[in-house]
Amino acid sequence: METEGEDHAFVLHRYPFSDSSLVLEVITAGHGRLGLLARGARRPRSALGGLEAGRPFVLRWRGRGELPTLVSADEVAPARLPGPWQGLCLFYVNELVLRLTVRNDPVPELFAAYAEVLEDLWAGARATWHLRRFEQRLLRALGWAADLPYCTVCGTAWKPGSDAWSQGPGAAPRCPLHAEPGGLILTDAMIQWLSGSMIQAPVSSIQDPLRRYLRAQIDELLDGRPLESRRLLAAYLRRQKDSGRQTW
Q1: Is it the case that residue 120 has pLDDT exceeding 70?
Q2: Interior angle at CA 92, CA 87 and CA 98, nearest 5
Q3: Which of 33-47, 71-85, 192-206 has the lowest mean pLDDT?
Q4: Which is a GO BP term held by this UniProt record (predicted)?
Q5: Which residue among 20, 22, 80, 89 is buried most deeply as judged by most CB within 10 Å?
Q6: Where are the beta strands (DSSP E) in 98-238?
Q7: What secondary structure, in 3-state letters, does 64-127 show?
């Protein structure tokens, strides 16, 4: 059966299809991640030639199966060219969404989180906590975030000021009674930030532990498959003057 649709969307990835067309992977507000065939988009004068990652559009499509045809694309905002840092962060965010989602599964909370992290990047944010917030919101939206603030072994609820909790296998939180030997310590500040709205930046002392904690969860979901964007981000930071003090 032929279907058609229209939705706000961002392009996550594009690759050639035949001599003149493109296959797009997009994230939409109400339809989840979609694959679309943009016929003729590689032609020099095509109206679909500006379908680049990170740009907001209203897309219309029609067709059958897993790859309907893109009918039109109306740009919602003027194009903004990312700098090296923004471009690499965009690559990372897009790669996460592509790896951890499936097509045709609407997740409105994820679309909202994606739109917000892009606004942070386009506004010139270089603080890496914006990426941590997106990672946690991604995990929450997909139902994979660790069940903070409860111990995964006994169900004990965390209380502020209690003895230090730790990170168990798969980033699962553990109370002091079931502490994981050698596991990352989950401080009060970490649990409060991850369990809250994450509107404000976390204190500097927990930013690296947050990175390691969230990476452990994401790595388990990736099942050992590396992210190319991580490699490029790490290489970029090594080239920066302050690379010895900065992690992402």
Answers
A1: yes
A2: 120
A3: 71-85
A4: double-strand break repair
A5: 89
A6: 165-167, 173-174, 185-186
A7: CCCCCEEEEEEECCCCCCCCHHHHHHHHHHHHHHHHHCCECCCCHHHHHHHHHHHHHHHCCCCC
Give residue-wise pLDDT tens across range 1-11: 678 999 999 99
CATH 2.40.50.140 describes domain 3-75: yes
What are the structure tokens assigned to 192, written together?
Answer: 């409060």
Q: Find, among 224, 216, 136, 225, the residue nearest to 170 by Cα.
A: 216
Fold match, 3-75 / 84-151+155-239: no
Q: How confident is the model at residue 123 (pLDDT cuts 50, 70, 90)?
A: confident
Domain boundaries, the chain: 3-75, 84-151+155-239
pLDDT the model gives residue 2: 75
Average pLDDT, integer, range 220-224: 91
For residues 153-158, give the mean pLDDT: 88
Cα 234 from Cα 231, distance rounded (Å): 5
